[in-house]
Each structure stands twice: as C-alpha cells, then as structure tokens.
Amino acid sequence: MQIKAKVLGTGYFLPDRILSNHDLEKIVDTNNEWIVERTGIRERRIAEPDMRCSDLAYEAAQMALKNANLSPEDLDLIIVATDTPDYMFPATACVVQARLGAKKAGAFDLEAGCTGFIYAMSVAEKFLLSPDFNHIMIIGSEVMSKIMDYTDRGTCILFGDGAGAMVLGKSAGTCGIVNAEIGADGTGAGLLLQPGGGSAFPASHESIDKKLHYLKMSGNDIYKFATRIIVEISERLLNKAGLGIEQVDFFLPHQANIRIINSALKRLKIPAEKVLLNLEHCGNMSAASIPVALAQADEKQLLKSGAIILTVGFGTGLTYGGALIRWGRD
Ligand code: ACO
Hints:
- There is one protein chain.
- The chain is of the alpha/beta class.
- It folds into two domains: 4-173, Thiolase/Chalcone synthase (Peroxisomal Thiolase, Chain A, domain 1), CATH 3.40.47.10; 178-326, Peroxisomal Thiolase, Chain A, domain 1, CATH 3.40.47.
- The protein has ten helices and 13 strands.
- Strands 1-7-6-4-5 form a five-stranded mixed beta sheet, sandwiched between helices. A four-stranded mixed beta sheet has the order 8-13-12-11, sandwiched between helices. Strands 2-3 form a two-stranded antiparallel ribbon.
- The chain is globular, with a radius of gyration of 19 Å.
- The two termini are 16 Å apart.
C-alpha cells in the first residue's frame, strides 16, 4: 500500500491550571469516587479566562515545528480541528497562521468534534498527494471549559482543555499514514451539540437565559454509539491494510470514558498495556485528546520506528474515523 503522508513532528500544550474531581465536588453535586469509577477521570486542565483556542493551538504548533526542524515559512497549509474556535469566523487557523508567521500557508478550521483530528489527518493526507503541498500543520485545540455548564454534573466533569499538533509531509518510504477513514451519521446531530450562537439560535438574551451557549449531551446514546463504532472502524482499517490486531503496537482511541476504552480493548482483544492514555489527568479534550496523547508518547520516546499505531475517534455529528500509522521519519 502506498504511504502518502508521514509524521515529521509532534507538539502539545496543556494549561497549568488543574481542576480536580475534589474541586468539582465543591461546585456541583458529584463525588470523586463516582467520577473515577464511571469515567476514569481524576483531573483536567483548564485554560485561564483570557486564553483562547488559538493561544493553545499556537503553543502546540510551535513545539511541533521545532520537533520537525522546520520553520513557519515551510508550511503550505494549517488546519485547526476544534469545537471551541476563537470566533464563529474568521477561522482560528488564520489567527494561528498570523501568529506563527506562516505566510505561505492556507488556513482553515475543521469541525468534526472529537473526531476532528482524525478528519484533519485524513484531509491532509489527501492534500499531500498534490505537488502544491509539502508540509501541513494539523492541530486539535480545545477550550471546552468555555462552553461548560458548571451546574450540569452530567457534562462538566468530563471535559478539559488542551492542544496537540502534528506536521505532516510527503512520504517516499515505509513510514507514515497507512490508511485513514472518516464517516458520519448526521441523524445523531442532536445528541451532542452547542445549540446557541449559530444561525439556528443566534445569541440573544433568550438564548443565554436558556443556557443554549453551553454543551448539551445525551451521554448514554453517545456511549452506545462509541462502543460500537470503535470496534467497527478498527476492524475495517486493519482489514483494508491486511494487518492482524496482534500487529498493532499501540492503540489510541479518543479519550472520553475509560469504560468505552475498556469495552473496545475487550472486544478487539487488545492487551491493556498497548493503549495510550491521558484521560485520567486530562479528561476529554475533544479534538485535542488524540494529538496530545500522541505527542506525549513521542516526547517520552515510547514510539519506536516501525511501530503500528491504531487510532480511532468518535464524536459530535455524529462523526467517526480512524487511522493506522506506521511510526517513524523514514
Ligand atoms: N456525579 C454523580 N452522579 C452522577 C453524575 C455525576 N457527575 N452524573 C450523573 N450522575 C447520576 C445520574 O443522575 C444518574 O442518577 P439516577 O440513577 O439517580 O438518575 C446516575 O448517576 C447514572 O447516570 P447515567 O447518565 O446513566 O451514568 P452513566 O454511567 O451513563 O455515565 C456518562 C454518564 C459518564 C456521561 C457516560 O454516559 C458517558 O461517558 N457517555 C459518553 C460521553 C462521551 O463520550 N462524550 C464525548 C463525545 S465526544 C465529543 O464529540 C465532544
């Protein structure tokens, strides 16, 4: 199978401020034991009030560029995957492009919820087939705390802030994205959304009074969808690549709930030591969860050249997707 894109560098950024389960006990009717048992989360990072999505994205991008040994002028395209952009428009990717000084790069945002980074990887992989694109920066960046209703214990305990980035380049060797696939089932669009602020319910006194600017979620429906779709995509990707599950060295699912991840491990028969996790200390960072976990593993030099990584995402939309990556710079 032709490898189209390879990973040239990774980076991440997490805000310093920690919101623990014990902190949440003081603001909402919950407790540490319930959260740990039902989700696997102990704490999450929260951005300072003046921090925007582009601030987190910029820091992660800087680290990825350094890691790739490239300068901002080398970038041909910047894609920011996010649910929590700086503005409805312009794109956060444009703000990041200006701050980096990536003068040659096109820039756009991509909205696919927690699957956003997988979508960005899949889009970048195809762009890299064109002679016009050599280096693409993809970023998952979220300030979920800005759209949390801290009186809703069903959602506010789950999410955290952070950003992860990756520079992709053309591949002539054996390492890179073996295959990537994306999908959607828009009939579930109402299951996880921020209803207010768009053209359906523009911002108004009424929209604020009704708390439409906060994230709303039917947790149980998303849970059922996630446990099913992770297994389906994993099997499809492996079949397409002609690989067996035992050939997977690292499994990196979207980090939403440890019970979803454990169910996938059991059904796919993947040993627990192969899973890359940051859920316990970061919560669900939506589009940032996967790239932060990948960059953290890269930083710790856990990912040896040639290692096969199976990564799978699911989220609002409903969207889903996955990628098989053969790690290495060759
Ligand atoms: N603390 C204490 N009790 C709670 C809390 C809490 N934080 N939240 C809910 N409960 C209570 C409920 O009120 C309910 O009580 P009741 O039985 O008296 O009515 C009980 O706990 C069970 O509630 P459930 O909602 O059934 O709990 P469940 O085990 O399903 O866990 C959860 C809820 C954690 C939200 C789970 O459904 C989940 O993780 N779903 C997936 C969510 C997800 O993956 N979202 C991200 C998608 S990605 C994206 O695109 C952003």
